[in-house]
């Protein structure tokens, strides 16, 4: 047997819709519960089709949905399926070119299956469990930080204002206290995990030596580097990583007369882009190669924001070099001549 049965899946919180494609033949499989019984039902249907078609592999194509897909992805890996989670923007751009216009669950599944069959996106190996755990902890930390900040802001705005009922301020104080406690517990879990998993401890120490990489940046950056290495089976390069994160330059040109200020694609993780930008904002004020790089761009007439984005990209490239080669940061190798 040879060949792949491509399975496109559109996920939601409670259920998912699936379709398959072999060559030019499509098959709608219907809706399944987003739980173990639904995964088993999908598995039974696609395995039956795979055997009937004489195919050797099953390739699952789906888009990340903030964690709703995690159970199905884990099930797929357990069953030995190939798994791809392509960038949604790239999929949508491809779909428009292929004439997909309607936006429904069933159309999305057909489109994803078609994309998987036509483009053959690289399969994504399973991440180490520790990386997935750290990713989930960091996302929960961010959720709690944002919620706590909102409650504290509300409390600050209401204090001293006439006409505010006492139970309102008491509620805000209680919720803020509970959020702070939950945040402390999540941070403790993060600390335990990063100290117990040796690759985290080693890579974290190396990355913290980089200009612009501090405690707020280092762990989300480390997760992204692990994800990129995993996605590319360790063969990825820094240019691909900047595209993966959405920091690569994207000029806008149409014909000979239409020009816009070039920007970045913003296709990847917006939070890591924000963190790298903030890291660059602090890093360019130190006495280090990042400052020299930034000042050289300013000296060439680049706007400050453009130079800061380029500096954020430079941090990412340096981080990948350190991570992928398992080497220490050496600032002497990255000095910018004045």
Description:
By secondary structure, this protein is an alpha/beta fold. The chain folds into three domains: 116 residues, ATPase, nucleotide binding domain (Nucleotidyltransferase, domain 5, 2-Layer Sandwich); 68 residues, Helix Hairpins, CATH 1.10.287; 118 residues, no CATH class. The protein is 58% helix and 14% strand. It contains twelve helices and seven strands. It has a five-stranded mixed sheet. A two-stranded antiparallel sheet has the order 6-7. Helix 5 runs antiparallel to helix 8 and helix 10 crosses helix 12. It is globular, with a radius of gyration of 24 Å. About 3% of the residues have low confidence.
Offer a concise description of the structure:
The chain has helices at 36-53, 70-78, 88-97, 105-119, 129-158, 166-196, 198-207, 215-231, 238-245, 270-283, 289-299, 304-325, and strands at 4-11, 15-22, 25-33, 57-62, 82-84, 249-254, 258-264. It is an alpha/beta fold and 338 residues long.
Provide key terms for this protein:
single chain, 338 residues, alpha/beta, Nucleotidyltransferase, domain 5, Helix Hairpins, 3 domains, five-stranded mixed sheet, two-stranded antiparallel sheet, 58% helix
Secondary structure: elements and pairs:
Blueprint: E1 4-11, E2 15-22, E3 25-33, H1 36-53, E4 57-62, H2 70-78, E5 82-84, H3 88-97, H4 105-119, H5 129-158, H6 166-196, H7 198-207, H8 215-231, H9 238-245, E6 249-254, E7 258-264, H10 270-283, H11 289-299, H12 304-325
Parallel strand pairs: 1-4, 4-5
Antiparallel strand pairs: 1-2, 2-3, 6-7
